[in-house]
Amino acid sequence: MSRLLNKATFAGLGRSLRGQVRTLATTKQAPALSNFSEKLRDGPSLGDFINSSSKMSAEEAFELKEPVKTTGVKKPKQRLPPWLKTEIPVGSNFTNIKKNLRDLKLHTVCEEARCPNIGDCWGGGEHQTATATIMLMGDECTRGCRFCSVKTNRKPKALDINEPENTAEAISKWGLDYVVLTSVDRDDLPDSGAEHFASTIKKIKEKASHILVECLTGDFLGNLDHVAIVAKSGLDVYAHNMETVEGLTPYVRDRRAKYRQSLAVLEHAKKTVPTLFTKTSIMLGLGETDEEVLQTMKDLRAVDVDCLTLGQYMRPTKRHMKVTEYVTPEKFDHWAKVGEELGFKYVASGPLVRSSYKAGEFYITNILKKQRAQAIDSSAAI
């Protein structure tokens, strides 16, 4: 199975090319080649490779990686399978949320990641459970995963101390039933942003206790004490995404993100607060095998993860890794059945499913409301 160039290989390729340019610079074309050499030396960096903001069509976003280039053969026009074509509905609630986000300088993963389900989630959709995914701590990430279009920066701006209050105030007015809080990775902070997460959750619960709060966190560099800070803050669902299978993790995720480290985060959240609903997500179409997907699902159940979402990988920009395979709806249905047999409380599996997925949140909402009602009944009986 082919693998993506890792950072070391990328750097080595750059050094090799610069060496060739220096050799050629002694020929008659020296001035032009010298100028090219300077440009190559000064960039692009790996960060530039990751941080393209170019807009893409659906065909480009789902462009397949060519296994072998055949000379003299014209590349056939790519046709998307019908299940990857979608319309994005909008409505009054969608417009209202978007305006509020701009006024309060808040960011959402829904917009940053160009999620195909944004109109359905913000508008309420068929399940009438309006949700939004707020991205805390700015829009610059200290990591550079090969599948993600969020901007990268080794030293992002300082945290906005008013963000927890602004976020809670906005959410309390939006008419949401379920909110997902996530963030960029902030490896530059002593606690990776754990206290900022916790403060935001507490303020939301103070202003709108009826809203169910899910936190989709990073791995906090493997520091389980920081995981516990978020787990004990009053949230309802603790989510952390595995993203891919173990064998592909070094090629898909940033080098600081490790498969076993992510499993440990999910396991510790549940151990810290056993009543927490834990959740994760993996992308398909990156070159994983069925055996690897099954093993990942088994690993997740071994640490008692409750909910799993599986979706088709979509390339966010032309500079990101291409899709390896279009996974069919039938295959996604297969994994949903396997997940339920393994004991997950809920599996959302489909080509356009994302980690913050409407139907999944609707289902989780019903589970959590039943748990709350049972807890109240038990207290009353005592």
TrEMBL record:
Its main location: mitochondrion. GO terms for biological process: protein lipoylation. Pathway: Protein modification; protein lipoylation via endogenous pathway; protein N(6)-(lipoyl)lysine from octanoyl-[acyl-carrier-protein]: step 2/2. CDD domains: Radical_SAM. GO terms for molecular function: 4 iron, 4 sulfur cluster binding; lipoate synthase activity; metal ion binding. Binds 2 [4Fe-4S] clusters per subunit. One cluster is coordinated with 3 cysteines and an exchangeable S-adenosyl-L-methionine. Residues 124-345 form the Radical SAM core domain. Keywords: 4Fe-4S, Iron, Iron-sulfur, Metal-binding, Mitochondrion, S-adenosyl-L-methionine, Transferase. It catalyses: [[Fe-S] cluster scaffold protein carrying a second [4Fe-4S](2+) cluster] + N(6)-octanoyl-L-lysyl-[protein] + 2 oxidized [2Fe-2S]-[ferredoxin] + 2 S-adenosyl-L-methionine + 4 H(+) = [[Fe-S] cluster scaffold protein] + N(6)-[(R)-dihydrolipoyl]-L-lysyl-[protein] + 4 Fe(3+) + 2 hydrogen sulfide + 2 5'-deoxyadenosine + 2 L-methionine + 2 reduced [2Fe-2S]-[ferredoxin]. The keyword Metal-binding applies. It comes from the Eukaryota. One of its GO terms (cellular component) is mitochondrion. The keyword S-adenosyl-L-methionine applies. It holds the Pfam family LIAS_N. Its EC number is 2.8.1.8. Gene3D superfamilies: Aldolase class I (3.20.20.70). [4Fe-4S] cluster 2 binds at C141, C145, C148. [4Fe-4S] cluster 1 binds at C110, C115, C121, S356. It is found in: Mitochondrion. Belongs to the radical SAM superfamily. Lipoyl synthase family. HAMAP family: Lipoyl_synth (MF_00206). This is Lipoyl synthase, mitochondrial. The lineage of its organism: Eukaryota, Fungi, Fungi incertae sedis, Zoopagomycota, Entomophthoromycotina.
